[in-house]
Design goal:
single chain; Chemotaxis protein chec; seven-stranded antiparallel beta sheet; 6 helices; about 45% helix; globular
């Protein structure tokens, strides 16, 4: 299993944090409250370690928002929450005093909007700063096992997952989720090549 150098890790975290900052401002405007998003951990892992990092079993239920991207590099960007945390996120971003029935009705729409904001902000940062072309599909909501969310490529031996923990903090609570990038083709000759170009430009 390959690992990132310190320079590579710092560059990726820098780009993702720019996107996360933009997403936090957009979410704050949406709910008229201060929203903090932080990325305290980034790892390149294989499928078995995806489960360990997400703290879930193979068949444990998760809620995920997935966007397909293609172009300079291609794959899936996925925002993942343990099932029990997704309603907490909706409650914290909307109205904690709203009846649970109303919250449930709004949950799918709200999660899709949150996912769209976060994923588009990160992918948009890659487009703008790496000067690359990406086409981004509309977000899709999944509920079920992590294997279902990741799809048929989940257990492929050469699949590399870039997994980042993401903390959502509002005045009401802190909720932990995960940002997962699943690359279709060889990671080192697509996305990582773009990161190397970015590192050279910063010197």
């Amino acid at each position: 299993m390959m690992d990132l150098s310190e320079l590579e890790r710092d560059a990726i975290c820098e780009l993702v944090n720019i996107g996360i900052g933009q997403a936090a401002r957009s979410l704050g405007k949406m709910v008229d409250d201060r929203v903090l998003l932080t990325i305290p951990a980034l790892e390149l892992v294989e499928y078995a370690n995806v489960l360990a990092m997400l703290g879930t079993e193979t068949d444990a239920a998760v809620t995920a928002i997935k966007e397909r991207f293609s172009g300079a590099f291609q794959g899936d960007a996925i925002l993942v929450f343990p099932e029990k945390h997704s309603l907490d996120l909706v409650r914290s971003l909307l109205d904690e005093d709203m009846p649970i029935e109303s919250l449930t009705e709004l949950e799918q729409e709200s999660l899709l909007e949150v996912g769209n904001i976060v994923l588009n902000a990160c992918l948009g940062t890659f487009i703008n700063i790496l000067s690359c072309r990406l086409e981004i599909d509309l977000p899709v909501l999944f509920r079920g096992s992590i294997a279902k969310v990741l799809g048929q490529r989940a257990t492929a031996d050469n699949t590399i997952y870039m997994v980042m923990r993401i903390d959502f903090t509002t005045q009401k609570k802190m909720i932990k989720g995960y940002l997962v990038f699943l690359f279709d083709s060889d990671f080192t000759t697509t996305f990582l090549a773009q990161i190397h170009s970015y590192i050279r430009m910063q010197r």
